[in-house]
Amino acid sequence: xxxxxxxxxxxxxxxxxxxxxxxxxxxxxxxxxxxxxxxxxxxxxxxxxxxxxxxxxxxxxxxxxxxxxxxxxxxxxxxxxxxxxxxxxxxxxxxxxxxxxxxxxxxxxxxxxxxxxxxxxxxxxxxxxxxxxxxxxxxxxxxxxxxxxxxxxxxxxxxxxxxxxxxxxxxxxxxxxxxxxxxxxxxxxxxxxxxxxxxxxxxxxxxxxxxxxxxxxxxx
Length: 220
Ligand SMILES: O=C(CO)[C@H](O)[C@H](O)COP(=O)(O)O
Ligand SMILES: [Fe+2]
Hints:
Elements: E1 4-7, H1 17-22, E2 30-35, H2 47-56, E3 61-66, H3 70-79, E4 84-88, H4 95-104, E5 108-113, E6 131-135, H5 151-163, E7 169-173, H6 181-187, E8 191-194, H7 196-199, H8 204-219
Parallel strand pairs: 1-8, 2-3, 3-4, 4-5, 5-6, 6-7, 7-8
């Protein structure tokens, strides 16, 4: 699968979200970080903002739910028109049911793992998902430093996914920039979230192009 870039609006100006979405027409997705002050010590936005953003842009929304009760809320994000909805393995109590409900609403279903959460215990869930999100920072805040210790897990995730037919995308999220994206791509990631590296750049379009080129080069 070709490299995909998903700029995170966490690093955008929340007062001008429609303009910020329009600022990256070359992005494959818009990454929407939903935080609830419970699963992570930060609060961002919820369903009404996702509904408004969906109407404001044709770029598909990649919703990353960092919330304590994804089983209750995730299907509603799919219903609101998100193209992809990702729940955290550490938070979901009924992941099989929730992932199936996301898919039943027509969205891609994602499973996210914190840096210290191993991938192997979730192998049996792979048939239920379309994307595995590997956090490369502790979730909760943008602008953190990329954690190299996740690189071996990206490799193991790519191996597992390949064994299951290679249909599942491997996404990395946190501290991804022109300096770190190559290592992620080389390890097997194919979808790259970047907040600060895109919205903190003077030319967000050029930043997306540069990230895509660096990841594509690293994959060889
Ligand atoms: O999920 C997230 C944080 O929990 C964000 O998507 C991530 O941190 C992106 O921001 P940056 O590229 O600045 O690290
Ligand atoms: Fe995220």
